[in-house]
């Protein structure tokens, strides 16, 4: 059996695959957080609960209405995104002129409420969610076995992340969004409805979390705790990449997923803490994060 640094090749590439899959979800979730914070200056602690809601809405669409994975992938993001827009209009819009701490406390409280409601209704055990038949099975690459669904998750996450970065950083719509956060009065003077733009932006960030929840459901099962278990790591990813940095969230999410996977091979005891160790080192050297800018 071929070995690299004393580790069997299949084991090494298997952990790299797991790292890339975890990194895909880190990138998608941290991207949503970065969009909301970078454009709205809201630290959205409800993000993990909204990720969980995406998985549960997909489960309910399948179990109650008989809709499959592909329909869920299309319908769940706008459904959960709409609940996010409702939260922004009814609650968060009242806090924009206050300190960031108020928004953080509100979203943290909302996350606890949402998780509690789903836990009371569905319990704490995971519920199965089937992957689409078209993506079942896998491919033998010689050095490892690649399940088709996991390959799809990695590619789809990368395409969605890069597409979002392109829209925000390279298009006229993105320039309007950035301008609305810097000088909303000026943008409003040009006839653009800034409050509506802010609401849609928050809804888009929430929709990204819900999309990640649908994609994660066949891999991790559907559980009320799935968001709570992930959100702390995702916040660490955002901090390392730089709060509000779109590109930083994408690169850091995938990169830290790979680092976490390699750590499980060479030093398993540190795999649960390596991201937080990296966060401490980065903050000590560059408090704004790797891709962030000090304001």
Describe what you observe in this structure.
This protein has helices at 9-40, 47-65, 69-90, 100-122, 148-170, 172-182, 184-189, 194-220, 226-241, 246-266, 274-285, and strands spanning 3-4, 7-8, 138-140, 145-147. It is mainly alpha-helical and 295 residues long. The strands form 2 sheets. A two-stranded antiparallel ribbon has the order 1-2. Strands 3-4 form a two-stranded antiparallel ribbon. Helix 1 packs antiparallel against helix 10 (246-266). The mean pLDDT is 86.
Compose a concise summary of this entry.
By secondary structure, the protein is mainly alpha-helical.
Keywords:
ABC transporter involved in vitamin B12 uptake, BtuC; 295 residues; 3% strand; 72% helix; mainly alpha
Work out the oligomeric state of the chains in this entry: single chain
Q: Outline, from the CA principal axes?
A: globular
Structural class of the helices, strands and pairings?
mainly alpha
Which regions are unreliable across 5 or more consecutive residues at pLDDT < 50? Answer: none
- CATH top-level class: Mainly Alpha
Q: Termini separation (Å)?
A: 53 Å
Give the averaged pLDDT, no decimals: 86
User: What radius of gyration results from the CA coordinates?
Assistant: 19 Å
Question: In sequence order, what are the helices and strands, one letter per element?
Answer: EEHHHHEEHHHHHHH
Report the portion of residues in β strands.
Answer: under 5%
Say how many strands there are: 4
CATH T-level topology: ABC transporter involved in vitamin B12 uptake, BtuC
Strand order of the largest sheet: 1-2
Number of helical segments with 4 or more residues: 11
| Structural domain tally | 1
Report the helical percentage: over 70%
Major sheet description: 2 strands, antiparallel
CATH architecture: Orthogonal Bundle
